[in-house]
TrEMBL record:
Residues 212-313 form the HTH araC/xylS-type domain. InterPro entries: AraC-bd_2, AraC_XylS_family_regulators, Homeodomain-like_sf, HTH_AraC, HTH_AraC-typ_CS, Tscrpt_reg_AraC-type_HTH. Keywords: DNA-binding, Transcription, Transcription regulation. GO terms for molecular function: DNA-binding transcription factor activity; sequence-specific DNA binding. It comes from the Bacteria. This is AraC family transcriptional regulator.
Length: 315
């Protein structure tokens, strides 16, 4: 993650320049007679930009005449202090403190903040977000309440980009990009759930039923070292994108679920008498781990004790 950049402005012209430079061209209208001022703190995680905007009351408008200028982004606006009103694609919603909503910069929108507020904006290039135009249209300006449903899990996850200790998110570039993608998926899934929509246009049956079937399949194939998101999705004739959203409704990734179940199975085997004399590496392989080093590291990280010591403690 690149270091934070903090910028401020104390006049409407400078504030407009700052907002247009950091986001996309917008029209800005102050609401009160108080001199407009504000600050923007920006960090980057892979291809995602996260910005904390603190300012006085105002209205941000992206009219049709400006939608062709600037970057095409999918964004999440999370209100941390105060409250705001978002209007896009024929819908208007109030976004209360602790909640968020999705919007897109390729379509006109209005963000109105009647009082001093702090808005955190998480933005991804449209091309990097796995969602159809129709799905995106259906979830813009839909409030995701931060204290209930998926919002209770997703909102705190988004906050970690700002509410953290220095160095907490020092990650390799590839991991940063993957984390950024996961944050987009979680946010979109939460918005779909809030709107009461299926996780994709072609989902069949209920999501809970599908999730149960997928978990059963995973449980039956934990020893298969080739088990992956692609192979699981293929088994159920769905896209990996849909598979990820099915799991994202529980605020977990497919990979994390598979790894967790493999570790639980290994733990169970190590407690049994049948594992006596079986090399630790073999136990790991039987649970889908191709590397003894990886198995030892992940087991120790999860349970705070190495596989060998765990088995000895339960003999």
């Amino acid at each position: 993650m690149r270091p934070e950049v903090v910028e401020s402005a104390s006049s409407l012209p400078r504030w407009a320049d700052l907002i247009n430079e950091r986001f996309v061209p917008l029209q800005i209208t102050p609401i009160s007679s108080t001199q407009l001022s504000g600050s923007v703190t920006t960090v980057h995680l892979g291809h995602m930009q996260a910005s904390s905007v603190q300012s006085t009351s105002q209205v941000f408008t992206r009219p049709p005449s400006l939608t062709g200028s600037g970057r095409e982004l999918v964004a999440v606006g999370a209100v941390e202090e105060g409250h705001g009103f978002l209007e896009q694609n024929g819908r208007q919603c109030e976004v209360a403190e602790g909640s968020f909503a999705v919007y897109q910069t390729s379509q006109p929108f209005v963000w109105a903040f009647p009082d001093t507020c702090r808005l955190r904006v998480y933005a991804w290039p449209r091309a990097t977000v796995g969602i159809t135009d129709n799905e995106l249209h259906n979830i813009t300006a839909v409030p995701v309440i931060g204290s209930r449903g998926l919002g209770r899990s997703v909102a705190p996850t988004l906050r970690t980009l700002f509410d953290r200790e220095p160095g907490d998110l020092s990650l390799p570039n590839a991991i940063e990009s993957r984390f950024a993608d996961n944050l987009a998926e979680l946010s979109i899934t939460a918005a779909l759930a809030s709107r009461g929509l299926p996780l994709s246009d072609d989902d069949g049956g209920t999501i809970d039923s599908l999730l149960t079937k997928i978990k059963v399949f995973i449980e039956e194939h934990l020893d298969d070292v080739e088990l992956s998101s692609a192979s699981i999705a293929a088994e159920f004739f769905i896209s990996t994108r849909t598979l990820n959203r099915v799991f994202a409704q529980n605020a977990i990734t497919v990979g994390a679920w598979v790894k967790g179940r493999r570790l639980e199975r290994a733990k169970s085997i190590l407690r049994g008498r049948a594992s006596a004399g079986v090399p630790i590496a073999v136990v790991g392989y039987r649970c889908g781990f191709t590397s003894a080093t990886t198995f030892n590291r992940e087991f120790t990280r999860r349970y705070g004790i190495s596989p060998g010591r765990y088995r000895t403690a339960h003999e």
